[in-house]
Amino acid sequence: MDPEERVRRREERRRQREEADRAEAEEEERRKRQEERQRHTEDVAETNGPTENGHSNGAEDEEAERKRLAEEEKTRKRNAIIEKQRLEDEERAKSGEGQKPKKKLGGLMGKVSKGRKKEILQMIIKKARGDLQLEEQEAAAERAKYVNDNVKEKSVDSMSKAQLQQLCEALHEQLRVAEGEKFDIEIKVKRRDLQISNLKIKANETRGKFAMPTLKSTKK
Predict the structure, then answer these.
(1) 12, 95 contact by CB (below 8 A)
(2) Nearest to 72, CA basis, from 109, 33, 102
(3) Alpha-carbon dihedral of residues 10, 15, 21, 23, nearest 10 degrees?
(4) Cβ atoms within 10 Å, residue 122
(5) Over the stretch 33-82, which tens digit does the pLDDT of each residue have?
(6) Phi, psi of 149, deg, nearest 5
(7) To 10 degrees, what angle do helices 3-48 and 52-98 make?
(8) What is the largest CA-CA distance in the chain?
(9) Range from 80-84, 106-110, 148-152, 171-175 carrying the lowest mean pLDDT
(10) What angle do CA 29, 35, 36 make, to 5 degrees?
Protein backbone atom coordinates (compact mmCIF):
# COMPACT_ATOMS: atom_id res chain seq x y z
CA MET A 1 0.00 0.00 0.00
CA ASP A 2 1.22 3.49 -0.79
CA PRO A 3 2.45 5.46 2.30
CA GLU A 4 0.24 8.42 1.44
CA GLU A 5 -2.78 6.10 1.17
CA ARG A 6 -1.92 4.56 4.55
CA VAL A 7 -1.67 8.01 6.18
CA ARG A 8 -4.95 9.09 4.58
CA ARG A 9 -6.77 6.02 5.87
CA ARG A 10 -5.32 6.52 9.35
CA GLU A 11 -6.49 10.14 9.34
CA GLU A 12 -9.94 9.03 8.14
CA ARG A 13 -10.29 6.49 10.95
CA ARG A 14 -9.14 9.04 13.52
CA ARG A 15 -11.66 11.58 12.23
CA GLN A 16 -14.47 9.01 12.36
CA ARG A 17 -13.59 8.12 15.97
CA GLU A 18 -13.56 11.79 16.94
CA GLU A 19 -16.95 12.36 15.33
CA ALA A 20 -18.41 9.28 17.07
CA ASP A 21 -17.02 10.39 20.45
CA ARG A 22 -18.34 13.91 19.93
CA ALA A 23 -21.80 12.65 18.97
CA GLU A 24 -21.87 10.30 21.97
CA ALA A 25 -20.84 13.10 24.35
CA GLU A 26 -23.50 15.43 22.94
CA GLU A 27 -26.14 12.71 23.24
CA GLU A 28 -25.14 12.04 26.85
CA GLU A 29 -25.26 15.75 27.68
CA ARG A 30 -28.66 16.13 26.01
CA ARG A 31 -30.01 13.13 27.96
CA LYS A 32 -28.74 14.58 31.25
CA ARG A 33 -30.34 17.97 30.53
CA GLN A 34 -33.61 16.25 29.64
CA GLU A 35 -33.56 14.25 32.88
CA GLU A 36 -32.83 17.42 34.88
CA ARG A 37 -35.70 19.28 33.21
CA GLN A 38 -38.01 16.33 33.80
CA ARG A 39 -37.09 16.24 37.49
CA HIS A 40 -37.56 20.00 37.72
CA THR A 41 -40.99 19.74 36.10
CA GLU A 42 -41.99 16.97 38.50
CA ASP A 43 -40.80 19.03 41.48
CA VAL A 44 -42.79 22.07 40.29
CA ALA A 45 -45.87 19.90 39.70
CA GLU A 46 -45.63 18.43 43.20
CA THR A 47 -45.21 21.89 44.69
CA ASN A 48 -48.04 23.66 42.82
CA GLY A 49 -50.43 20.74 42.59
CA PRO A 50 -52.30 19.42 39.51
CA THR A 51 -53.95 22.67 38.45
CA GLU A 52 -55.12 23.58 35.00
CA ASN A 53 -52.57 26.37 34.79
CA GLY A 54 -49.84 23.91 35.70
CA HIS A 55 -50.88 21.62 32.85
CA SER A 56 -50.82 24.56 30.45
CA ASN A 57 -47.38 25.64 31.61
CA GLY A 58 -46.11 22.05 31.28
CA ALA A 59 -47.31 21.84 27.65
CA GLU A 60 -45.69 25.17 26.85
CA ASP A 61 -42.45 24.02 28.49
CA GLU A 62 -42.49 20.80 26.48
CA GLU A 63 -43.04 22.73 23.23
CA ALA A 64 -40.24 25.17 24.07
CA GLU A 65 -37.97 22.26 25.00
CA ARG A 66 -38.75 20.49 21.71
CA LYS A 67 -37.87 23.61 19.73
CA ARG A 68 -34.67 24.07 21.69
CA LEU A 69 -33.64 20.46 21.08
CA ALA A 70 -34.31 20.87 17.36
CA GLU A 71 -32.12 23.98 17.27
CA GLU A 72 -29.37 22.17 19.17
CA GLU A 73 -29.53 19.27 16.70
CA LYS A 74 -29.23 21.66 13.75
CA THR A 75 -26.29 23.41 15.40
CA ARG A 76 -24.59 20.08 16.12
CA LYS A 77 -24.95 18.92 12.51
CA ARG A 78 -23.67 22.26 11.19
CA ASN A 79 -20.64 22.11 13.51
CA ALA A 80 -19.94 18.52 12.44
CA ILE A 81 -19.98 19.53 8.77
CA ILE A 82 -17.65 22.48 9.46
CA GLU A 83 -15.26 20.26 11.44
CA LYS A 84 -15.23 17.62 8.70
CA GLN A 85 -14.47 20.26 6.06
CA ARG A 86 -11.66 21.63 8.22
CA LEU A 87 -10.06 18.19 8.64
CA GLU A 88 -10.30 17.54 4.90
CA ASP A 89 -8.63 20.87 4.17
CA GLU A 90 -5.81 20.07 6.61
CA GLU A 91 -5.30 16.62 5.06
CA ARG A 92 -5.30 18.11 1.56
CA ALA A 93 -2.74 20.69 2.63
CA LYS A 94 -0.50 18.00 4.17
CA SER A 95 -0.65 15.84 1.06
CA GLY A 96 0.15 18.89 -1.08
CA GLU A 97 3.22 19.67 1.06
CA GLY A 98 4.45 16.07 0.79
CA GLN A 99 4.44 16.10 -2.98
CA LYS A 100 7.48 17.59 -4.63
CA PRO A 101 6.83 20.02 -7.46
CA LYS A 102 7.54 18.52 -10.84
CA LYS A 103 10.28 20.12 -12.89
CA LYS A 104 9.34 21.32 -16.31
CA LEU A 105 11.24 19.59 -19.08
CA GLY A 106 11.63 22.75 -21.09
CA GLY A 107 12.88 24.85 -18.19
CA LEU A 108 16.57 24.56 -19.02
CA MET A 109 16.06 24.62 -22.77
CA GLY A 110 14.14 27.88 -22.44
CA LYS A 111 17.37 29.65 -21.46
CA VAL A 112 19.29 28.34 -24.50
CA SER A 113 19.45 30.30 -27.73
CA LYS A 114 17.86 28.98 -30.93
CA GLY A 115 21.23 28.33 -32.55
CA ARG A 116 22.39 26.32 -29.55
CA LYS A 117 19.13 24.36 -29.56
CA LYS A 118 19.66 23.49 -33.21
CA GLU A 119 23.21 22.31 -32.52
CA ILE A 120 22.05 20.15 -29.62
CA LEU A 121 19.31 18.63 -31.78
CA GLN A 122 21.80 17.82 -34.53
CA MET A 123 24.16 16.23 -32.00
CA ILE A 124 21.33 14.07 -30.66
CA ILE A 125 20.34 12.97 -34.17
CA LYS A 126 23.99 12.19 -35.05
CA LYS A 127 24.41 10.16 -31.86
CA ALA A 128 21.18 8.22 -32.57
CA ARG A 129 22.32 7.43 -36.13
CA GLY A 130 25.68 6.20 -34.84
CA ASP A 131 23.98 3.96 -32.30
CA LEU A 132 21.70 2.51 -35.01
CA GLN A 133 24.66 1.78 -37.28
CA LEU A 134 26.55 0.17 -34.41
CA GLU A 135 23.55 -2.04 -33.59
CA GLU A 136 23.27 -3.10 -37.24
CA GLN A 137 26.97 -3.95 -37.38
CA GLU A 138 26.76 -5.98 -34.17
CA ALA A 139 23.69 -7.85 -35.47
CA ALA A 140 25.44 -8.63 -38.78
CA ALA A 141 28.57 -9.86 -36.96
CA GLU A 142 26.51 -12.05 -34.67
CA ARG A 143 24.58 -13.48 -37.62
CA ALA A 144 27.81 -14.25 -39.50
CA LYS A 145 29.30 -15.91 -36.41
CA TYR A 146 26.22 -18.09 -35.98
CA VAL A 147 26.32 -19.12 -39.65
CA ASN A 148 30.03 -19.98 -39.44
CA ASP A 149 29.53 -22.02 -36.29
CA ASN A 150 26.47 -23.96 -37.43
CA VAL A 151 26.84 -24.19 -41.23
CA LYS A 152 29.82 -26.23 -42.36
CA GLU A 153 31.03 -26.32 -45.93
CA LYS A 154 30.77 -29.77 -47.48
CA SER A 155 32.17 -31.04 -50.79
CA VAL A 156 29.54 -32.84 -52.82
CA ASP A 157 31.79 -33.76 -55.75
CA SER A 158 32.82 -37.12 -54.34
CA MET A 159 29.40 -38.02 -52.88
CA SER A 160 27.22 -40.72 -54.30
CA LYS A 161 23.56 -40.39 -55.07
CA ALA A 162 22.54 -41.99 -51.75
CA GLN A 163 24.87 -39.69 -49.82
CA LEU A 164 23.48 -36.64 -51.61
CA GLN A 165 19.96 -37.77 -50.85
CA GLN A 166 20.88 -38.25 -47.18
CA LEU A 167 22.48 -34.78 -47.07
CA CYS A 168 19.36 -33.21 -48.59
CA GLU A 169 17.18 -34.94 -46.02
CA ALA A 170 19.41 -33.69 -43.18
CA LEU A 171 19.36 -30.13 -44.53
CA HIS A 172 15.61 -30.33 -44.97
CA GLU A 173 15.23 -31.46 -41.34
CA GLN A 174 17.42 -28.58 -40.16
CA LEU A 175 15.34 -26.13 -42.19
CA ARG A 176 12.11 -27.56 -40.78
CA VAL A 177 13.38 -27.22 -37.19
CA ALA A 178 14.60 -23.68 -37.84
CA GLU A 179 11.27 -22.62 -39.34
CA GLY A 180 9.42 -24.15 -36.38
CA GLU A 181 11.62 -22.26 -33.89
CA LYS A 182 11.17 -19.06 -35.89
CA PHE A 183 7.38 -19.47 -35.83
CA ASP A 184 7.39 -20.12 -32.05
CA ILE A 185 9.55 -17.06 -31.42
CA GLU A 186 7.27 -14.85 -33.55
CA ILE A 187 4.22 -16.05 -31.59
CA LYS A 188 5.98 -15.34 -28.28
CA VAL A 189 6.97 -11.85 -29.44
CA LYS A 190 3.41 -11.05 -30.54
CA ARG A 191 1.99 -12.34 -27.26
CA ARG A 192 4.44 -10.26 -25.23
CA ASP A 193 3.72 -7.17 -27.32
CA LEU A 194 0.02 -7.67 -26.59
CA GLN A 195 0.71 -8.08 -22.87
CA ILE A 196 2.83 -4.92 -22.84
CA SER A 197 0.06 -3.00 -24.60
CA ASN A 198 -2.54 -4.23 -22.10
CA LEU A 199 -0.31 -3.30 -19.16
CA LYS A 200 0.19 0.19 -20.57
CA ILE A 201 -3.58 0.61 -20.91
CA LYS A 202 -4.12 -0.55 -17.31
CA ALA A 203 -1.38 1.79 -16.07
CA ASN A 204 -2.98 4.73 -17.88
CA GLU A 205 -6.39 3.84 -16.45
CA THR A 206 -4.89 3.65 -12.95
CA ARG A 207 -3.32 7.09 -13.31
CA GLY A 208 -6.53 8.45 -14.80
CA LYS A 209 -4.95 9.13 -18.18
CA PHE A 210 -6.30 8.00 -21.53
CA ALA A 211 -3.89 7.17 -24.34
CA MET A 212 -5.26 8.54 -27.60
CA PRO A 213 -4.95 5.84 -30.28
CA THR A 214 -3.26 6.62 -33.57
CA LEU A 215 -5.87 7.68 -36.09
CA LYS A 216 -5.56 6.81 -39.76
CA SER A 217 -6.39 9.35 -42.40
CA THR A 218 -9.29 8.42 -44.68
CA LYS A 219 -10.08 9.65 -48.12
CA LYS A 220 -13.36 11.47 -48.58
Answers:
(1) no
(2) 33
(3) -150
(4) 10
(5) 878 877 777 776 666 554 444 455 566 777 777 888 878 888 887 888 88
(6) -75, -30
(7) 170
(8) 140
(9) 106-110
(10) 90
